[in-house]
Amino acid sequence: MIELLKAVIAYLLTALQVLIHIGKKVLAPFQKLKQDIDPSGRVVLLTGAAGGFGSNLVRELLDKGANVIAVDVKMEFLEKSLGKLKCEKLEFLQVDIASNEQVVQAAEQVKELLKKWNKDRLFALVNNAGIGNSPNCVKRGGVVEFDEDEMQQVFNVNTLGHIRMVRELYPLMENKNTQLDSNASIILNVASISGRDALPFLSVYPSTKHAIVGYSHSLRREMELLKASGNDNSFVRVCCVEPGFSKTQIVASKPFNEESIFYKAYLLTKPLYFKVVSSAITPDHVALEMYRQIFSSNSYDSVIVDKWYMIVFWRLFNYVF
Ligand SMILES: NC(=O)c1ccc[n+]([C@@H]2O[C@H](COP(=O)([O-])OP(=O)(O)OC[C@H]3O[C@@H](n4cnc5c(N)ncnc54)[C@H](O)[C@@H]3O)[C@@H](O)[C@H]2O)c1
């Protein structure tokens, strides 16, 4: 009888724990984001640093005293976009994240920079680099009309590039002394609203973003289990950022192939795209949200960055289209 009672109590306690855990998760997006981590002297690496979101984030980070490793596919992009900000706390790295070899080499360069700055870890990795259809694409069409090279290129940057960066840099993110500093490092994966609601006629772009959303969630859950198993030092926070439309280089419009059998179908989507484009958010709005997540001890698992009415729209879009 006592054994049965013990089993029932254990069962009820576990059920209560599960309910509290689910409650916390459900309420998390409504909780006020704390800004309780001091950015000063913390090392942040971001890819796609020369671009719209990236360059705004670099400015914000330097302004608040962080050390920044700015990564982009060409040194000239970094020089052009961020050259004027050059200082002791800013380093440029030319890395094509589509190349495994270059990413492996980048990890060695990051180790050297940490030594030079006398830092014991990389505090934040912001996987932000991305391409649209393809840099070489001249025409847009239906999703069945894109060729092999193009599909591989988009996945290689938007999905595999981020995964490679995590694999190579995660070992440098360990918090070696949790007694001195209890704040865990963070990995921010920049997906897109297209990773939640696949808009038509964007080639395989929405698929790459859905893939990175899935990757972020499995990475986050593994990290939480690592912590639950008692390994606090290796625990890293994971946040998936899902921005809405913003007028940066990536969305530079490419003409739709008028000979495509999808051309008339594409014209039907114009009102939807008009709505999306007319409520564009500014790149600094997105950068500020990324900054807030990095330096918050209760950073979110995922965050949609858009105008509030577009957030409602995106949530409904799934059910009506
Ligand atoms: N602008 C939007 O509407 C929007 C919306 C949702 C999500 N996003 C995502 O936000 C991220 C940043 O986009 P953005 O709007 O600042 O675009 P952007 O084109 O201004 O910046 C992208 C940057 O990534 C760099 N890059 C491209 N390929 C690379 C590679 N192989 N290796 C290293 N760097 C590379 C580019 O040189 C560029 O500096 C992207 O992942 C994009 O998919 C953008």
From TrEMBL:
Any one GO molecular function term: oxidoreductase activity
Pfam families referenced in this protein's UniProt entry, alphabetically: adh_short
Entries under InterPro entries matching the protein: NAD(P)-bd_dom_sf, Sc_DH/Rdtase_CS, SDR_fam
Entry's Gene Ontology BP terms: steroid metabolic process
SUPFAM superfamilies, alphabetized: NAD(P)-binding Rossmann-fold domains
Coiled coil spans: none
Protein family membership: Belongs to the short-chain dehydrogenases/reductases (SDR) family.
PANTHER family listed in its UniProt record: 3BETA-HYDROXYSTEROID DEHYDROGENASE DHS-16, SHORT-CHAIN DEHYDROGENASE/REDUCTASE FAMILY 9C
Protein known as: Predicted protein
